[in-house]
Amino acid sequence: MIYLRIFGYLILLSMLYFFRAQWVVLLTLIVLVALFDFLFSKLKAGVVFFTILSLFLFFSFLFLLKFLGVVPLSLIPFFAIAFFFLSFITGIRLGRNERFLFFDADLPEYRGCVRILDASALMDGRIYQVIEIGFLDGTVMVPRFVLNQIEKIFKTGTELKKRRAKMALELIERLKNLKNIKFVLCELDLAKEKDIDHKLLALARKFKAKVVTNDYSLNRVASVNDISVLNINDLANALKPMALPGEIITITPIKKGKEEGQAVGYLVDGTMVVVNDGEDSIGKEIDVFITNVLQSSAGKIIFGNKKS
C-alpha cells in the first residue's frame, strides 16, 4: 500500500512539468491530497471526522461572508489557509477528547478479549495465581483510576488495608512481566461520575470486556447492565471438590460441634465437616464416612460419621 501511495505522489509531482502555468493550483492540490492522506491513514477516526466537519462549517461561513460581500476576493486565499489550519486543530482537539470516543477505530487494538481488574480483585491477590497458571488469558487491563484508588488506600487506609493495597501494587508490577497475557494500564476514563463502579462499567461496555471482581454490589450492578462479570469467590466455590454421601474423607477435627459428641474440622478448601461421635478424636487424623452434604448460604457443610 505504501508503494502505491508513493507512486501516486510521483505522478502528481510529474504533472507540474506539464502544467507549469498552473503550478500554484496543482501544488496546492498536492498539499491537500497529502494532508487528507495523512488524516485518514495516521490519525484517529474521530480526528478525521471532526476535521472534515470543521472544514465544512468554516468554508460554509467563508462562502456566506463572500456572498454578503464582507470579505474582499483578494483575501479569500488567506482566509482559506487560516480555516484549513483551524479545522485541523479543531479536529485534533475534539477527536482525541475522551468524551467523543464513539468511533470504533479510535479504540486501541486490544479491544475484544479483555478482562478488567477492579481494586477488590487486585487486593484479594488470588487473581495472580489464576492468571499465572493460564486460566485467564487475553488482555488483562487495570484502569488508571483503579490504580489511583489503590494508592489512596495505601496512604489513608487502616493498617490491614494498607498491607492489602501494597500487595496489590506489587501484584500489578508482577502482572506486567507475565508472558501468557497482554497487560494494559488503561488511561481512559469514560464516565463523568466520580463513582469508581460507574467508571468500570463504562469502560467494560466500551471495550466489550469482562469485569473481574470480588465486590458483590459491583457484581449485581454489572449483571443488571448486561456486563459479564468474573467473580473470584464464585470461581473458588465452583472449584471445591465434590463430596458425595457414601464417600470417605480424611480430616483432623479441631473443635467441638454444637451437638453433644460432635466434632468440627475443615477441608483444605475451607469446607466445614461435622463429625458425629468425633469429639474424642479432636486433634487426631481420622477417616469420615459422609452421610449428608448440605448447601447453605454460608457455603457447603459436610456431615459424616467417624469410621471405626
List keywords for this structure.
alpha/beta; 308 residues; five-stranded parallel β-sheet; 3 domains; rod-shaped; 11 strands
Radius of gyration: 32 Å
Query: Which fold does the CATH topology of the largest domain refer to?
Result: Rossmann fold
Q: Assign the structural class, choosing from mainly alpha, mainly beta, alpha/beta, alpha+beta, or little secondary structure.
A: alpha/beta
Largest sheet: 6 strands, mixed
The fraction of residues assigned to DSSP E strands is 15-25%
Structure, explained:
With 308 residues, the chain is of the alpha/beta class. It has 3 domains: 2-105, no CATH class; 107-238, 3-Layer(aba) Sandwich (Rossmann fold); 248-306, OB fold (Dihydrolipoamide Acetyltransferase, E2P) (Beta Barrel), CATH 2.40.50. Helix content is 49%, strand content 18%. It has helices at residues 2-18, 23-42, 45-68, 76-95, 119-124, 126-132, 144-156, 159-175, 196-207, 216-224, 232-238; strands spanning 114-117, 139-143, 182-186, 210-213, 229-231, 248-251, 255-256, 263-266, 272-276, 286-296, 299-306. The strands form 2 sheets. A 6-stranded mixed β-sheet has the order 6-10-11-9-8-7, with no helix packed on it. The chain has a 5-stranded parallel β-sheet with strand order 3-2-1-4-5. Helix 3 runs antiparallel to helix 4. The chain is rod-shaped and about 110 Å long. The model has no long low-confidence stretch (mean pLDDT 80).
